[in-house]
Design a protein that fits this description.
elongated; alpha+beta; 7-stranded antiparallel β-sheet; 6-stranded antiparallel β-sheet; 25 strands; 15 helices
Length: 560
């Protein structure tokens, strides 16, 4: 159904042309309809593409602008002269009539001696352009309520061909929804008895050309503190998080916009959630700490989760190793920015866990910080820091744990995430393994005794060992492994020794062998209730005496 241009009237003509120009140019340029209808310095619609300006001048002359029609040509010429002051690349006159040769010649003569292209968008071109965008034409030419009723009647019919009929009727409903408004449409879905309707803009600037607002009044004083804080973040700073307001908290919800959408609701639950990935998500970001002279003392790279804005200020969400930073930056300069940080080491490799822990310490210690997104400053502030001694001690213990695990994993070439839980015995084994890999000698807490089977006592050294007097013993094992988080980590060849080892019940074992016993099991134990010493034979010699290195684990007594 074509637009009846001679009957639509100027206001409706202007609306149709504005909607059409937005659809034609919004994808590649900035389109702006100027209030005044020619009374604003010769511009009705401006289209800016790079450094080029295109001006549309709208004149509702259904029967043309022949010389006999007093005042029309002077009005067009005046609008053209005022538009030329803006140095446009192109000037387009839009009229709802089919122009004559005389009228076209008049327009072309306006550009003589000027560096501007001029042309006419008349009835024929308007009809042609609208044919390519039938939903715009339909939204201004059809009785929407009548069409919707017809489609709904079809929905009640029997779906004789099953899914094929259903698909066709859903498409018809979709087309009907598209034709309701030139700027907005409604996507829909069914989940059981629930119908979900999603408002969607037909072009990138639908929210500017035809704005829609939601206003609700409620009883905020009765909200739980957690919900009140969530509302402040979401509405005050534009944080992309879901907020659910129960019916008892909402007195009234009003949707304002096009007539078909405007409505007021009562006793409703309001669910506010992000519509999708935030613009700019994934852009490189960085958190830097600076000293009093503005010099960077530490920086941590991350990725932007999103930028938001509300009635109180702006928000910045940045993902960093092991956590997520959120800055709430008020518009009021007298109010200090707030930074919050979620912290999790789950699934991180030890190297990344160490970075996350260092960042955690920086945040706790406080100081000046700044956040940049894609190289540009997005927020800054100052943190007050005063961590307790217990917190610092816990951070030191975690840092040592991650360092130990990182060194041992690289040595054994076995890589796995930081375990969520680690028994104390595994922590001790890991610390011992780290010291061994570093080339140190340790007193092994897992080697208080050694059990040997002796098959003879002819060797003088063996007889001396079984005599009951302390002796020096050194043994080599080619596969020294430690058990950590359910994994066996092979450290390589280890040497186990002690300078004062006593054979438990050695004299009786020696007597039995001398009496003809084929073999005898003996237990070797270092004197003075000490442990055997160990070192790895393949690690570089640090030149230090073979004295046990301290474990340095808080709450764990050093092995002897």
């Amino acid at each position: 159904m074509a637009v009846e241009w001679d009957r639509v009237g100027q206001p409706r003509f202007d609306r149709i042309v504005e909607a059409l120009v937005h659809r034609l140019y919004d994808g590649s340029a900035v389109v702006q309809a100027v209030n005044g209808r020619g009374g604003d310095r010769g511009i009705d619609i401006r289209v800016v593409s790079g450094d080029r300006l295109r001006i549309f001048q709208l004149k509702y002359y259904p029967d043309g602008f022949a010389t006999s029609m007093k005042g029309r040509r002077p009005s067009i010429k005046e609008s053209f002269e005022r538009a030329i002051e803006h140095d446009p690349y192109e000037w387009i006159l839009v009229v709802p009539c089919t122009v004559t040769d005389s009228e076209r010649a008049f327009i072309e003569e306006l550009a003589e001696g000027r560096k501007v292209k001029v042309r006419i968008m008349d009835r024929a071109e308007l009809d042609d352009r609208l044919a390519a965008h039938s939903d715009i034409e339909a939204s201004f030419t059809r009785d929407q309520l009548f069409e919707a009723a017809k489609v709904y009647g079809q929905e009640k019919a029997i779906l004789r061909r099953g899914p094929r009929d259903l698909a066709k009727r859903v498409k018809k409903l979709g087309r009907a929804a598209d034709e309701v408004d030139p700027h907005w449409t409604m996507d829909f879905a069914r989940e059981g008895d629930k119908i979900i309707q999603t408002l969607r803009g037909k072009h990138p600037r639908a929210h500017e050309v035809s704005p829609i607002s939601l206003t609700f009044t409620g009883r905020t004083r009765s909200l739980a503190p957690e919900l009140s804080s969530a509302m402040t973040r979401a509405f005050g700073y534009g944080v992309a998080e879901e907020v659910v307001l129960p019916p008892e908290a909402v007195n009234r919800l009003k949707i304002s916009g096009p007539d078909w959408l405007t409505k007021t609701f009562k006793n409703v639950e309001v669910v506010w959630r992000p519509a999708g990935p935030a613009p700019g998500a994934g852009t490189p970001a960085e958190l830097a700490f600076v000293d009093g002279q503005g010099r960077v003392t530490a920086s941590y790279a991350g990725r932007l989760n999103g930028l938001g804005s509300g009635n109180l200020g702006r928000s910045i969400d940045v993902a960093v190793p092991g956590g997520q930073l959120r800055i709430l930056n008020p518009f009021d300069d007298a109010v200090r920015p707030k930074l919050s940080y979620t912290f999790s080491l789950e699934s991180l490799a030890p190297h990344d866990a160490m970075k996350a822990l260092r960042l955690r310490r920086r945040l706790l210690e406080g100081g000046d910080f700044q956040v940049t997104v894609d190289g540009r400053t997005a927020g800054a502030g100052r943190l007050s820091g005063a961590p307790s001694d217990d917190v610092i001690r816990q951070l030191d213990e975690l840092q040592l744990f991650f360092e130990d695990l990182d060194v041992v994993q690289r040595h054994c070439e076995q890589y796995f995430p930081v375990p969520f839980e680690l028994p104390a015995v595994d922590r001790i084994a890991l610390r011992m393994a780290r010291l061994l890999v570093d080339g140190r000698c340790v007193a092994s807490p897992f080697s208080r005794t050694l059990t040997l089977t002796v098959t003879g006592a002819e060797d003088p050294a063996m007889r001396q060992l079984l005599s009951g007097h302390p002796q020096s013993v050194r043994l080599t094992t080619p596969d020294c492994a430690v058990q950590i988080a359910g994994r066996s980590l092979d450290l390589g060849t280890a040497c186990m020794f002690h300078t004062r080892v006593v054979a438990q019940d050695g004299p009786s074992a020696l007597a039995a062998l001398d009496a003809g016993a084929i073999e005898k099991e003996i237990i070797l134990r270092p004197a003075d209730d000490e442990q055997f010493r160990m070192f790895l034979t393949d690690t570089p010699d640090d030149g230090l005496p073979l004295t046990p290195a301290p474990f340095g684990l808080d709450g764990y007594p050093e092995p002897r």
